[in-house]
């Protein structure tokens, strides 16, 4: 196959400064609402990029579980690779790949652990099987075969029975506090529209248009 021949025009729509909200979070929420309305599967899926202790980058898809002016929220096991990377270098990047709308949003910022109370509110809202999985999985650690993992889940079922499942102390949330947010809208003939918001301390956000 000639992969260099795979191409198409991006004609879903343009983006101008006049169309943008002065607050990138409000602009993100508007785009997210439109993405949900497009019936794109997993509209809250985002690529999380981290740097490990050797300086090597790694990416994975996680689900965003909340957004506000404070930042973007996700949850994980604190022993996972992503959490271990964040402990070494909290600077991370997020990418929302909304290809159906010829859009993407890139976020750069600092990942900070959320409070136990905030994490608990989400944990207790999860389906019971997801709560059990949080206890059973030593996330990112090697395993010999799937049957071992399934046995670990059953062990947790037996342990907690029909009672309430407590939140593990090795599990919780992170909030990515944004310093830069870029909105990308595909354009015809590769003349894409790109706008970058950069935080300016207490002065709000600076908005720049970037060349494609």
Automatic annotation (TrEMBL):
Q: Name one GO biological process term.
A: pyridoxine biosynthetic process
**Source taxon at top rank:** Bacteria
The record, for InterPro entries, names: Pyridox_Oxase, Pyridox_Oxase_CS, Pyridox_Oxase_N, Pyridoxamine_oxidase_dimer_C, Split_barrel_FMN-bd
Q: Which terms in the Gene Ontology molecular function aspect does this entry carry?
A: FMN binding; pyridoxamine phosphate oxidase activity
Question: What sequence ranges are listed for the domain Pyridoxamine 5'-phosphate oxidase N-terminal?
Answer: 35-158
Q: Which UniProt keywords apply?
A: Flavoprotein, FMN, Oxidoreductase, Pyridoxine biosynthesis
What PROSITE patterns does UniProt report for this protein, alphabetically?
A: PYRIDOX_OXIDASE (PS01064)
Identify the residues that bind FMN: 60-65, 75-76, 82, 104, 139-140, 184, 194
Binding site residues for substrate: 7-10, 65, 122, 126, 130, 190-192
Pathway connected to this protein:
Cofactor metabolism; pyridoxal 5'-phosphate salvage; pyridoxal 5'-phosphate from pyridoxine 5'-phosphate: step 1/1; Cofactor metabolism; pyridoxal 5'-phosphate salvage; pyridoxal 5'-phosphate from pyridoxamine 5'-phosphate: step 1/1
Q: Which residues form the signal peptide?
A: none
> Which Pfam families does the entry mention?
PNP_phzG_C (PF10590), PNPOx_N (PF01243)
* Keyword Flavoprotein assigned: yes
List cofactor names only. Answer: FMN
Q: Which reaction does it catalyse?
A: pyridoxamine 5'-phosphate + O2 + H2O = pyridoxal 5'-phosphate + H2O2 + NH4(+); pyridoxine 5'-phosphate + O2 = pyridoxal 5'-phosphate + H2O2
Tell me, in a sentence or two, what this protein's role is. Answer: Catalyzes the oxidation of either pyridoxine 5'-phosphate (PNP) or pyridoxamine 5'-phosphate (PMP) into pyridoxal 5'-phosphate (PLP).
Similarity remark: Belongs to the pyridoxamine 5'-phosphate oxidase family.
Q: What is this protein called?
A: Pyridoxine/pyridoxamine 5'-phosphate oxidase
Species assigned in the record = Parahaliea aestuarii
